[in-house]
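May I ask you for just one protein sequence along with its C-alpha cells in two labelled lines?

_____
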Amino acid sequence: MKEPEDARKIKQVGYEKDMPALTSGHHIEDLPAEILEMYPDGISRRRFLSLLSASAALAMGASCSQIDRGTIVSYTKNPGEIKPGVAACYASTFQEGWTTQGVLVKTREGRPIHIEGNPDHPISKGTVSLRAMGDLLGLYDPDRLRAPKLNSDASTWEAAIAALTQAFEKARTGDKPFLLMTGAMVSPSQRSLIADLKQAVPGLWHVCWEPASPLSQFLDDPSIPKLHSEPAKIILSLQSDFLGSDGNAPSYIQGFASSRRISSPSDRMNRLWVFEGPMTLTGANADVRIRVRPSGIASLAYALIRLLNEVHGIALPYGMDANYLKPYMPAKTAETLGLELVNLELLARDLAEARQSVQVLAGPSLPAEASVASSLLKIMLEADGDQSGSHGSRLFVAEAVSNAELRNLIEEAAGGKFSGAIFWGVNPAYAFPEASLWKEAVGNIPDTFRIGPYEDETATDCDWRLPEHHWLEAWGDFLSTSRFVSLRQPTIGPLHSTRQGEDILLACMRDMDLQVPGSYREYIKTVWKSRIYPGNSPVRFDDYWNAALHNGGAESIREFSSFLQGSWQTAELRGVWSSLGSESKEDVPNAGNEAAADAIDGMELVLAPQAGVYDGRYANNGWLNELPDPVTRATWGNPLSLSIADAERLGVGNGDVVEVTNGETTIEAPVLIQPGQCPGVAALALGYGRRSGSVAAGIGVNAYPLLNNSPGSPLLAPGISMRRKNTRERRPLPLTQTHDRMEGRDLARSWTLNRYALESGKEKVHDPHHHASLIPERKYPEHKWSMAVDLSACVGCSACVIACQSENNIPVVGPEQVLKGRHMHWIRIDRYYEGDPHDPRVLHQPMFCQHCDDAPCEIVCPVNATTHSPDGLNQMAYNRCVGTRYCSNNCPFKVRRFNFFDYTSMKKEPENLVFNPEVTVRPRGVMEKCTLCIQRIQNAKQKAKVEDRSIKDGDIVPACAAACPAGAIVFGDLNDPDSRVAKLSKSNRAYHMLEELGIKPSVTYLADISHPAIIEELR
C-alpha cells in the first residue's frame, strides 16, 4: 500500500497547528534508494515495516541531516569536568528585564538539558522563574537566526562589522546622533562598555526600554531586592500580581509561602489583603480579596491613610497636611467604590498592629496618584523595615525611558534626527503601540541594525539582522543587589554563526583603533579586577574569578552607587501628588474621587505580561505557549477576560469575539468569562499576536496597540468601548480545565485558621477509609517512595509543570489537540471555585499520578504494561503498551496521557537536542504519566551504592519539587520515619485524594489554611 498523499505533505516546521489525520512519522521517501528500486510499484505496509531495520543499517553510511557537521573528532583527552553519562551542573544567571535569578544549568556531554535554581545564590535562594526553565527550549529553537543578513540576503560577519563601524564613524564626524536602544541593562560591565563606546562616539544616544515593565516618575521603579530579617505579617497588594506575572515572583512566592507552611494553629501566619480589578494569581491566593476598579485604588489608599491617622493615632508623614485628606471620608469612599466600610476598618486595624511588619505592593497598572498614595502609606507605616522616611532605594538607570518618552523619541527619529540606529534586545516594531509612526521612523534612519536571536518584526524592518547568542551561550554579569554581582557563563558553544551583542560592539571599537580587550569575557574580567575584586586579597584574581564562576557571583568591595537612585522623601512625594491635581489642596483629592466615580460608568482595560510568553519574547516557545495560564487555564492565546456581569450585559459567552476600542485603535479578541472579576474591568495579556516565528505567528492578538501613552500608567486604559462583533464570530478557546467546581466532593480541602485550631486537638482530622480489597496487600521491605503536597504553601504558579516537561521529554501538541483534550502534561494544576461565582474563593491543587497501592490502572491492562515496583511506584513499560487506554479509563484522577501522534518526529534540528537522555522519548500510541522522576531515584541509588551508604532523606528531589519556589512539594521514603514526607503524612492536615475508593493513593495532601480577617475581632 502506498503512502497517502496527504501524509507526504506534512510541514516540518515548529509545532504543527494542523495535525495530520494519521501518520506514524515514517515516510517511504526516507528509505534508502537501494530498497526503493527493488519495489517500483510500491511497498505494502507489512513489507514497509519489515524493511525498517534494514534501512537503519543502510542509513549508517548516509547522512540523515542537511547540516554539514564537518569532521567529527573524538576526545583525545577527556575534559576533566565531563564524564560520559554523568550530568554536570554550572552556575549561571538568568536575566529578564530588571530582574535576575541565579540558576544551575544541568548538562550532559556539554549539552544543556535542564535548568534549576541555584540554592547558593544569596538573592534568589534556589528559586527560578518558569520562563527561565522554559527558555531552555529557546536555545534549540530551529527558527533562530543563524548568520548575518543584509535585508533578506545572506552576508558575513566581516561585512556586518564593517558596516556598523562605518555607521559609527559617520556619527563621530557628522552632526546627527546615533541611537542605541536596548532592553533593561543592570550589568556593570555592559554599562561600562556603553560608556566606553560613548567616549568613542560622542553622538551616541543610549535608551533602555521594557514594554511590559514601564517606568514613570510616579511608579515604584524596579527595586533591588531587600533581605528581610523576618517575613511580613500583613501584605497589602494594590493591583500587584507579585505572585504571578511579576519578574521577581519566585522570590516573592518563597517569602510568602514561608509563613503559610504551618504545623499547628499557634504558628505565625501572614495575611494577604488584595484589592484588584481582574482576577490575578495573587488575588486567587488572597486571604481577603476585594474587587475594585484600578481607578478607585488611589481614593481607597487615601481613605486608609486617614483611618490610620484618625482612628489608630499613627502620625502622617512629615510635612503632610491633614487637610489634604478631608475629602477622603472612609464611609463615602467605600460607598463610592462599592465596598463595605468594615473591610477598610479591618485592614486599617491589621496595618496599625503590624506596622513595620507590613509590605505594601503597588502594581504597574495603577494610575499615577495611586502609586503616590501607596508610597505615602509605606512611609507612614515605616513598612518594609525602612525607617528612614522613604520607601527604599531603587535601581537607577538614567537611560531608561517610559512609553511616553519613547513615543517622543520615535517622533524625533521620524523627523530624521538620527544617522543610524541599533535595536538590541528590543522589538519596537511589535511592541510599540503606533505601527505607522514606527514605520515612518525606521524608514527615516539611514543605517539600521537589529541585534537579536530571531529575524523578528523589527529585524525585517532593519537593514542588517545580526544574530545574537542565546543567554546559555553567553557571558555576562548582573547586579542583584547594590553589592552582589551575579555571573553568567556559557554552558555550550554557539550552535550557529552567532555572536554576543557586546562582542559585536567590541569588534567595532577595535576597528576604530580603540584599545579594548579581544572578547567580552576578558572585558568583564577587567571590570571585575578594578571594581569588584578586593585588591588587598591574598587570593589571586584568577582563583577569585574561578570561585565566583563556581558560585554564580561574588560580593563587590564597593557599592555600585551609580545604580542607586536617592529615595523619595515625603516632601518630594507630596509635591508630586499635589501636581497631579489643581492648585487647591481641597481640589486634589476631590479630583481623584470624581475620576473614580466617572470611571464606574465605563470599562477599564488592564494589560499585563502573560505568565508564559511574558511580553512576547518567548512567543516562539512551544512549552510556554502550551503552559496553561495559572488563572484562566487557557493555552495558545490571550482571550479577553470579562466579569460574569459584563458578559451578560454584552450578551457574550466564552469564545465570542468582541471589538475593543481605545481611542482610534480597535482590536478583536475572544471572550473568556472569569469568575471573581470586577464588573466594569476587562483584562488582556500582552505577548501574543506576533507576525514572525513558526510557532508564534498568528497565535492570539497583539494588545500593545491598546497601551495608554499617558505619563501615568500605560498598562491601564480607562474609558474603553466594547461590543460584540457583528458577524457573531466565535473562536474556540484551548482550555485545559473547563470543570471548575468540586460538586460536593472533598478534593481540595481548605480550612480557616480558626477551624484548624478547633480540629487540631484530634489525632487526625480525617480518618483514613478502610475497604476490603481483592488485591493482596503489598509489602515494601526497603523503600516506599511517596510525595506530599502542602496546599497551604502552593500558589498554583505552574513552575512544576514546566520543570516536569523539561525533565521528562514531554511533547508539545498544539492548540488543535489541546481543544480535543490531548495535552500531554504529566502535572496539571487543578483550579476550583468556592462560593458566589461573582466573588468566589479560589483553590489550587497540583495533580499527578498518585501511585496508588491498589492501582485501578494495573488490574485492567491486558498486556501488563503498567505494574507496581517493589518500592511503591506505579511503573510504565512503554514497549509493552499497545494503546488500549483501558488504564486511562480506569484512572479516577485522569492523570494518564496518550500519544495520539508521533510528536517527536516532527522536530527539526537542533530541537531534538533538548531531550533528556536519561528519559525515554515515547513513540506514538503509548500511554505515559508521572514516574516521580524514576531516573533521579535510580541515579541517587547508584551514587549511594558507589559511596557505600544508604540513601538519605533529601538525596532525591524530583524536578517538580526542585522547581517549586514555595517548597510545597516534598518527596521521600515513607519507610523512613525521620523523613519529611513521613512526618507530613501524619500531619493533622493530611489526607489522600478519593481515599474512599479504597485504591490507597501514596501522595499525601495537606489541607489549605486561609487566614481571613474576622469582623468579630474588630469589636
Observations:
- The domain at 750-763+783-1010 is CATH 3.30.70.20 (Alpha-Beta Plaits).
